[in-house]
Amino acid sequence: MEEIYLDNNSATRPVDGVVDQMGSILRQYWGSNLSPHRLGQQNNLPLFTSKKKVYDLLGAAENDGLYLSSNGPEAVFQVFYSAYVNHVKETGRTHFLATDMEDATILYSLKRMEKFGCSSKVIPVNQYGQLTKEILEQNLRPRSAMMSISWANNLTGVIHPLEDIAEVCKSKQVLLHVDCSSIIGKSYFRYEDMQVDFLTFDGSLFHDPLGSGAVVSKWSLPFTPFNPCPGFESVSKMLSLAETLEIASENFDHVCTETARLRDRLEKNVKDQIGDVVIPFAEVHRLPNVSVMCFPGVFNESLLYLLNSQGVYASMGGGKYQKISHILHLCQFDKNISQSALSFCLSHETTQQQVDKASQIIVDCYKKLIKCSISLKQEEKNES
Q1: pLDDT of 247
Q2: Are residues 193 and 323 in the same domain?
Q3: Which residues span the domain enclosing 355?
Q4: CB 180 within 8 A of CB 42
Q5: Do 163 and 151 meet the contact criterion of CB atoms below 8 Å apart?
Q6: Coil, helix or strand for 303?
Q7: N or C terminus of the chain: which is more exposed, having fewer CB within 10 Å?
Q8: Rounded to whole angstroms, what are the CA distances from 15 to 180, 213, 373?
Q9: In terms of domains, do 102 and 130 share one?
Q10: Over the Cα atoms of the chain, what is R_g?
Q11: Pick from 184, 178, 226, 186: which is nearest to 203 by CA?
């Protein structure tokens, strides 16, 4: 059975070349780059060149801060902790904000700030799943310290109007943290040109091996990383990150054109055979590789189970993300529509053959569930 992976919003397959290189890198560059001897100092050149490549690919200024982490969640909480240490204590501002669409990483970090004596607020989004300038202005307070937001929602693909959000935060002197994990390789940006104070990402969402993440901070802001030994950095992680960011950059045009075309083809294939299918957010600015489809009359758990049995892997959220049904409910969708939703996330590796095959499997599984539902209703009617 061919497996068709359409769950790239949860994790992505590591790039073959990077995985192959890491073994030799770990064997060759194992010394401490803080040691003065040759074995330690030989790390500095590959570390410097790969770090410079990361800066260039992210469009960061050479004096901006770059701090590696073990994963995305760790990177996010480093930002919250640093904001508390360097901003809250200096200004007395103790109010942290995030949208109600965020995943567990940001919402959990927001909640943890309450243990430091801070207050937090979860802001609602509009019916399109976006945080607007007007909504943000209504929810900021004189004591607001930082706004934290994912640039795009991993499950819906909806992209927030970041320039408007940054403009409001700047005018109110509120720090802005943006997680760009799902944006990298799908939307062009240069960190140097953005009014964003902290940028975080999880490498496992753009084909870096699991266990990588980072924080980028503006040079003008003090930052307190978890690493108690500044200057010590992993050569293998930096090289891997530089390589995967470069591959994401090389595949950028492909993702924004061909992958977007395949996403639209998937939606059209299904819609042509199931007229009742609802495709939320199709008219909203969204990621080129993400589609949400709702299948009225069936529960998403049942459809996901059948798809899994046929080797098609999609997502209904849960785990580190909010469930897609809850996200649609927050966007004011009908309950029956929300509970039938699934998220499909393609990558540059997804082929047209896979899309066409997945489309037919989705249609067949849906029809099977509808047929079962009709049969059960008929039996209940006969019994009554």
Answers
A1: 95
A2: no
A3: 4-10+252-383
A4: no
A5: no
A6: helix
A7: C
A8: 19, 16, 42
A9: yes
A10: 22
A11: 184
352 and 222 inside one domain: no
Beta strands in the chain (DSSP E): 4-5, 65-69, 95-99, 119-123, 144-150, 175-179, 198-202, 213-217, 290-294, 312-313, 341-345
DSSP state for residue 384 in the 8-state scheme: -
Do 47 and 151 belong together in one domain? yes
Q: Which residues, at least 6 apart from 104, have a Cβ–Cβ distance to it below 8 Å?
A: 73, 319, 320, 321, 322
Distance (Å, whole) CA 267 – CA 348 = 17
* Joined tokens for residue 121: 């607020």
Least confident interval from 8-22, 107-121, 271-285, 298-312: 8-22
Which CATH number fits the domain that encloses residue 315?
3.90.1150.10
pLDDT-based confidence at 264, cuts 50/70/90? very high
User: In degrees, to the nearest 5, what angle opens at C-alpha 136 toward C-alphas 202 and 80?
Assistant: 40
Instruction: Give the number of domains in the chain.
Output: 2
Q: Are 300 and 180 in a shared domain?
A: no
Question: Rounded to whole angstroms, what are the CA distances from 308 to 161, 209, 313, 350, 361?
Answer: 35, 24, 6, 17, 10
Taking all residues of the chain, what is their mean pLDDT, rounded to a whole number? 92
Same domain, 198 and 312: no
CA distance 243 to 50: 8
Do 313 and 3 form a contact (C-beta atoms < 8 A)? yes
Domain co-membership, 259 together with 319 = yes
Which of 250, 284, 301 is the last residue in one of the domains?
A: 250
207, 224, 250 - which closes a domain: 250
Examine the domain organization and report whether 146 and 277 are in the same domain.
Answer: no
Q: Smallest Cα–Cα separation from 240: which of 40, 44, 24?
A: 24
Is residue 345 within 8 A of residue 289, CB to CB? The reply is: yes
Cα 350 to Cα 4, 5, 6, 213, 276, distances in angstroms: 8, 8, 8, 24, 26
Characterize 69-98 residue by residue with b for buried, 16 or more Cβ atoms within 10 angstroms of its Cβ, and e for exposed.
Answer: beebbbbbbbbbbbbbeebbeeeebbbbbb
Cβ–Cβ < 8 Å for 100, 122: yes
CATH number at residue 120: 3.40.640.10
Quick one: which of 187, 153, 148 has its CA closest to 165?
148
